[in-house]
Write a structure and sequence with these properties.
This protein is α+β, with helices and mostly antiparallel strands. The protein is built from 1 helix and 4 strands; from the N terminus they run E-H-E-E-E.
């Protein structure tokens, strides 16, 4: 069975650092329990990590997950 691994990075902007972190944790948890015909499984990567958007000054939190995916053939 063919398999590929990819890294997904998710960035969450919110009103303050705590809310950004909480929402990032929720999103990470939802991704970790997801599986289906294309995404076969997900493992935690890095984060959530707090930061501030350099352009807007808004608090954010970012994380990565490692996903095992079924490769899709490109049409000829």
């Amino acid at each position: 069975m063919a398999n590929a691994r990819c890294t997904l990075r998710v960035t969450i902007w919110h009103e303050d650092a705590d809310q950004a972190h909480d929402l990032a944790m929720l999103c990470q948890g939802l991704l970790l329990v997801h599986s289906g015909p294309v995404i076969r499984g997900v493992r935690p990567g890095a984060g959530p990590l707090p930061a501030i958007d350099s352009d807007s000054g808004v608090d954010l939190s970012t994380f990565t997950v490692l996903a095992n995916v079924k490769p899709q053939p490109l049409p000829a």
